[in-house]
Amino acid sequence: MRILIVNPNTTASMTEKAATAARAVAASGTEIIAATSRMGPVSIEGHYDGALAIPGLLSELKERQSAGYDAAVIACFDDTGLEAARSFADVPILGLCESAVVTAGFLAQRFTVVTTLERSRVLIDNLVRRYGMGERAKVRASDIPVLELEDAASGAIGKLRAEIERALAEDGAEAIVLGCAGMTDLARELQAIYGVPVVDGVAAAVKQAEALVSLGLSTSKRGSYASPLPKPFSGAMSGFSPALKVG
């Protein structure tokens, strides 16, 4: 089984962090392939960044079709481009937020998602509600720019831990979800410190991708995720025309 991990931002160190987390949980027969977008923002913080990251994400999905992959994981907790990717691809596509909150729902009645900035908190709160977990989950921002998670001297880990402690004390959280792909390497350590389940979206998405492939299931192509209708696209978007889709 081959699972493609696509980082929709252009920071390669974040891709490697996600790939390491994915390989740590992948089954022995699963190959993890990591890809970094070659166009768009260095980090995704809010709607504007997310919109401009989607072309790079779709390019990676398209260009790697010839080598083949059985499922793909979008390594951003905003589930950037998830709907478009599911419409484009013929294999299961997993997003970190959806995978993480579903997993947390198996483990706790109440949980808190701890993310980076307030602009991301609002976006993720909307996703959590859309995924049916709005009555069980709270979303908190820890005031950490995403790229500070790549800098050990930034103080980001202290801010994250302080917000987790507030979630446990004030929210009645029974589990914590890490609301950024850049936090993926911290899950095991934080779980040991706080004694509650700490869910990392990368690990959750990889295991769910493996399950879907093993069950022989993929995204429905009837209705909302039907393949795009062939038509010309203009200008810089001409290469994204569905008429040019491979496979």
From TrEMBL:
Q: Identify the Gene3D superfamilies for this entry.
A: 3.40.50.12500
- An example molecular function term from Gene Ontology annotations: hydantoin racemase activity
Name the Enzyme Commission number(s) assigned to this protein.
5.1.99.5
Q: Which InterPro entries match?
A: Asp/Glu/hydantoin_racemase, Hydantoin_racemase-like, Iso_Racemase_Enz_sf
Q: For this protein, what reaction is catalysed?
A: D-5-benzylhydantoin = L-5-benzylhydantoin; a D-5-monosubstituted hydantoin = a L-5-monosubstituted hydantoin; D-5-isobutylhydantoin = L-5-isobutylhydantoin
Query: Keywords, A to Z?
Result: Isomerase
Q: Does the keyword tRNA processing apply?
A: no
**Superkingdom of origin organism:** Bacteria
Family assignment from sequence similarity? Belongs to the HyuE racemase family.
PANTHER family, per the entry: PROTEIN DCG1
The protein depicted here goes by the name Hydantoin racemase
Organism annotation: Rhizobium fabae
